Amino acid sequence: MIRILTICTGNICRSPMAERLLQQKFDEIRPGLFEVRSAGIQALVDKPMDARAEGLLHVLGGSSDGFVARQLQETHLTNVDLVLAMGVEHRDRILSLMPRLLKRTFTVRELARMVDAVAEDPELEVPEGTSDDDVEYRWKRLPHLAALKRHQTRAADPLEDEIVDPYRRDDDVYRQMVRDLVPALERLVEFERVYHQMA
């Protein structure tokens, strides 16, 4: 099992959208092998998804069924393979809670750039194969490989590492959230999809 945690502030807009879209996409490739969950650093505990974020999720083909917000706890980080923060603030909070996750914690847009750089580097040996063990090994190695590209892929503008927070803002900001988030998620999914198309 590959365990991924997505993190934002209230856990009702950005991180649940990332959770549900990633889970759906990975299930299409490898059902049952990825577990994507989310939490907030100041969660609106037990609240459902924000209605406008939920509407956009449904437009994108995702489901919010059964979702409730939860507050980030150290126990959520114990066995996680990858933490995807929606912004630098969230990434820094994770690392203050559990510094040993340094090489497994990224903003989602940051990791998307790194994954592209990893895929394009012929000198890096990315584990191949499509068995359950192969896929698990690839994703347990990926954060280490990505971290090698951290300096090379550093954003010129810090905003390039952020998913805009739309909460209580106008519809244009919600649409901007989608424009920030979805391409980054797609790049992560495509990283895995390539190996299954090769098989």
UniProtKB/TrEMBL annotation:
Q: Does the keyword Methyltransferase apply?
A: no
Q: Kindly identify the residues recorded as the active site.
A: 8, 14, 121
Q: Which residues form the Phosphotyrosine protein phosphatase I domain?
A: 2-191
**Which SUPFAM superfamilies does this entry report, sorted A to Z?**
Phosphotyrosine protein phosphatases I
The alphabetical list of record keywords is: Hydrolase, Protein phosphatase
Q: A single Gene Ontology molecular function, please?
A: protein tyrosine phosphatase activity
Q: In the record, which residues are listed under signal peptide?
A: none
Q: Which Pfam families match?
A: LMWPc
Quote the InterPro entries the UniProt record gives: LMW_PTPase, Ptyr_pPase, Ptyr_pPase_sf, Tyr_phospatase_low_mol_wt
Tell me the SMART domains matching this sequence.
Answer: LMWPc
The family note in this entry says: Belongs to the low molecular weight phosphotyrosine protein phosphatase family.
Q: Under which name does UniProt file this protein?
A: Low molecular weight phosphotyrosine protein phosphatase
Origin organism of this chain?
A: Arthrobacter crystallopoietes BAB-32
